[in-house]
Design a protein that fits this description.
Helices cover about 75% and strands about 0% of the residues. By secondary structure, the chain is mostly helical.
Length: about 290
Amino acid sequence: MGPARAGHGFVAAYTVLLIAFGIVPTGYAVYFAFTNAGGRFTGLSNFSTALDDFRFGPAVGHVAFYLLCWLVSLVVFVVGLALLLHRMAAGGVSRVLRFLYYVPGALAGAASVMVWLFVLDPTVSPAAFLLRGLGYHTFGQVIAPGHLPILFTLVAFWTGAGGWIVVMYGALNNISPDVLEAARIDGAGAWQTAWRIQIPLLRKWIVYMVILAFAGGTQLFVEPQLLSQASVGVAGRDYSLNQLAYDFAFQNNDVNTAAAISVELLLVGLVVAGVFVARSGFFDAD
């Protein structure tokens, strides 16, 4: 009875936090999205206001391209690096690399962006020789609008990929050694073993990673916001949808339209998560 009560206690604490910081704020945002400043029901008018804004379309395009770069790089490099780490698991090098991969994730988002602002400035960057070799001699040239999706992808990968590499490495350790040994006896090389056995067995973990990374990627805010301030507006104050919602709420004093944008992002995240879960058999028993 004791372990059961302890389990209920942990679940109860999580449930309280979920209600306080998840369900209640979501309900509050939905309420604002369908009402006006006076609290009257307005239907979809706030959503129409957001969609009709000239900044909405470009913001959607910016976030979509960033998500494409971010998710592709995340899946390819995280899975690839986890497979490499797993192959050299016998040595101490693997432990050191796992630790080094994980360290950047200890930095908060704002701190990570500040580090990268320093790295991307050719006048002070430790990688100045590389930036100048690519033809960039000023900070403004490096953070040109066309470069921003790639730069944001680098920041996101640097801060977020390490934790996922450790997770994928742990998932690889759960694959039965007998299965890998059987593949080796059948003549499968490293590439065939990875492609035909390990990656398929990682499918649910990869789907889980993509769902969370997609949800986080749609919330792009800190990186363009700080970069906009550091570059005196080169990045734009409305580069992402979250920035646009922030602008509506605190510059236009239009909390209702800002809430409508938030609800739209929530719906997109739920739909994409539902599609991935349904198509991948995420909850199917192995």
